[in-house]
Amino acid sequence: MTTVSVVAVDMGSSNVRAVLGMWDGERLERREILRVSHRAIPKSPLAWDVALLRKAAVSALDIATDILGKAPDGVAIDGWGVDCVFVDDDNSPLTPARCYRDAAGARGRARLEALYSEVQLYRETGVLPQDINTCYQIAGEDVPRGTLMFLADHVARSLVSDSVAPWASAGVASTSSLVKADGTWHTDLAKVIGLKANQLPELMPELSVVGYRGTTAVMRAGSHDTACAVHSLCYPQAQFISCGSWAIAGALTPRAVVTDAAWQAGVTNEAATNGKNRAQINLTGLWVGQECRRAWKERGYNPTYAELDALVGKVPVPEALIDINAPELTTPGAMPEKVALLARRVGVIVDKPEEIMRLLTESLAHAQAKAIRTLRNVTGTQARVYMVGGGTRDRLLVERTAHLLGEPVCVADPEASALGNIVAQLQTLGVEPAHIATWMKTSSVLHEIHQ
């Protein structure tokens, strides 16, 4: 068969990656063609550089065209959820693309609590109330004019040659608390926070074509990075840990889980690409360590990951742990000092970078294992655990997670979001899912790590 080529643009909170996927009918060849570092712009409001994100997507297509000698068959954007931008009819931003770590979310949550019960909102949307949720970000400020678009959708729309109406992809929209568990806009809540009906775009399913850029199909292929990562597994019964800046433990369920037990356990629900639900527990993941490394680099200490990992491996298991979800660890700045202070509160002294990283590794491993056990109790799901994302490169983290679970963890691709994006695009273009699953099972994408 003719080779099908697609570009996955995977927007992370610290860099944008573009991966070219080429499917020849039996195997998938992948090549990273672009990686651009970025971070939220540290001003008020804390916001993303939308122009950089859009430029990166265009550059990825140009590079892919040069490599292939023709335009790729498809492209899709995935990224984190909750963050949005309000746009005019031409897709030009009317507001900054506020970052979920901006203080507006906390302000909005405090305002909305007095107007709408959080328990009721959870029952209706399946989304756990958190400061980062889109509804709180919007409630924290005066509602602007224009149409709401989630960030991944906005970047995708900027690629389409012809004019297309704004949309909201099911994957990213499900993270917002503005969409009910049945997949429709929560218009009552929108009205409470000041959003008009004409500011909410049409909700659209995943695995569909948005429009074209020349001959390249622009697709919705998961839209949310975790949805794409889980889609890459091709296993409908899997439990998963998607470990990147956030560490997300989850289980695939037929529908949103909104029981009393789920509420008390902190389970949130988001849409999966296959129409199912992802019942999840969200943890602060590798971001804390990334912030520590950034601080050390600014102070003149900049070891490679391999060098620091070697030092971390020599540090004994800490005698106590910190709460990886502690509020102090959710905002940037002075992260090594924040970790050291939390450690002192539980009787642990960490002075050296390797001691701080060892404490973070052990604390995250415990949190991940606990989250999987909790999800099994709450959802009744008992399945093999797959770990995806950048955290799979940290063998100590995976080994400790497996040890604490008391069972092997199947490690999947570190770039699982990009892989899932590619797989979803191929399926949208007509490639049989069974053929891709066969390649997955016979390739080196998956391997077990034991306790």
Would you give an account of this structure?
The chain is α/β, with parallel strands linked by helices. The chain folds into 2 domains: 4-224, Nucleotidyltransferase, domain 5 (2-Layer Sandwich); 234-411, Nucleotidyltransferase, domain 5 (2-Layer Sandwich). It has helices at 50-68, 104-113, 118-125, 134-139, 151-159, 170-173, 187-193, 225-231, 260-265, 287-298, 305-312, 335-345, 353-379, 395-405, 416-428, 433-442; strands at 4-11, 15-23, 28-37, 47-48, 74-78, 84-87, 97-98, 147-150, 167-169, 202-204, 208-213, 216-220, 239-243, 246-253, 268-271, 277-284, 385-388, 409-411, 447-449. A 7-stranded mixed β-sheet has the order 15-16-14-13-17-18-19, sandwiched between helices. A hairpin with a 2-residue loop joins strand 13 and strand 14. The mean pLDDT is 93. It holds the Pfam family FGGY_N.
How would you briefly describe this protein structure?
This protein has 451 residues and is α/β, with parallel strands linked by helices. The protein has helices at residues 50-68, 104-113, 118-125, 134-139, 151-159, 170-173, 187-193, 225-231, 260-265, 287-298, 305-312, 335-345, 353-379, 395-405, 416-428, 433-442; strands spanning 4-11, 15-23, 28-37, 47-48, 74-78, 84-87, 97-98, 147-150, 167-169, 202-204, 208-213, 216-220, 239-243, 246-253, 268-271, 277-284, 385-388, 409-411, 447-449.
CATH fold group of the largest domain:
Nucleotidyltransferase, domain 5
Gyration radius (Cα, Å) is 21 Å
How many beta-strand elements? Answer: 19
Strand content: 15-25%
* Residue-averaged pLDDT: 93
Supply the number of helical segments. Answer: 16
CATH superfamily of the largest domain: ATPase, nucleotide binding domain
> Largest sheet, order of strands side by side?
15-16-14-13-17-18-19
